[in-house]
Amino acid sequence: MTEGLFLLGSAMPDLSLVQYNSVDNIFSMTVATMGAAALFLFMSRAHVDSEYRPALLVSGLVVSIACYHYFMIRHSWHDAYALVDGGYKGTGAAFNDFYRYADWILTVPLLMVELVAVLRLPAAKATNLLTRLVIAAALMIALGYPGEVIADPSRWSERVMWGVLSSIPFFYILYVLWTELTNSLETQPPAARRLLEIARLVIVITWAVYPIAYALGGTPEALAAKAGTANAASGVVGAGGVVALQIGYAIADMTAKAGFGVLIYLIAKSKSTKTASA
Predict the structure, then answer these.
(1) What is the structure's pLDDT at 11?
(2) CATH number for the domain harbouring residue 60
(3) Angle formed by the axes of helices 190-216 and 260-271, to 10°?
(4) Is 8 helix (H, G, I), strand (E, B) or coil?
(5) pLDDT tens-digit map of 96-117
(6) In terms of Cα–Cα distance, which of 39, 21, 22, 112 is closest to 258?
(7) How far apart are the first and last CA of the chain?
């Protein structure tokens, strides 16, 4: 593969102090959030029944993987910029945004696993559900990445095409998760039903951020800024789109992984008949 498949344009848009630090701070917050969530989830396995411990183990792995990748994303962000005359300008070192897709390739299927594990569905049904969800997740990521790396304003329509294609498995996953969670409510203990209803909303709301962030980072102005071809007027808008993309993805990841992981723990705890010993 060529370098362009892994790097988000070496000509990074100029950023103000506020824009650069907003992204840097959200990356720092994401690393801390994922790390803290990992410790919490691994240590909390002793407080649920044994059949729910695999769900917390997988959830802990999800946030651990995300913690590592966001550490690398932040490191790459630092390399891509230097403070010059009161603002931040690209150093020529490309911002490696592939770390985020590498993270999604690993964590999105695992998110499906942790949810199905905590539902404790019959084995045959769980296997069928996971197979469909994992295949759809792989297609969603694979179809979205070619559009994400486009940094040429003249190829805006191509980015839209990839975004639309990626949205097909994306909405399929949301539909399946919503219907399966709804159908499982009657078989769940009363204490867990309310939490599962919240889980449905968390999935829909947090996952909705991803296509919005994708769209903000793919405006013609944002693409021009990433390619280093934006004029003075559109460069501000383009830089704002790049910043919105990074912040939007980070917030969505924190909620969909760390926040959802804590929710998985609460569901497992509510379904446990006793407090497990350490």
Answers:
(1) 61
(2) 1.20.1070.10
(3) 170
(4) strand
(5) 878 888 898 899 889 888 988 8
(6) 39
(7) 48
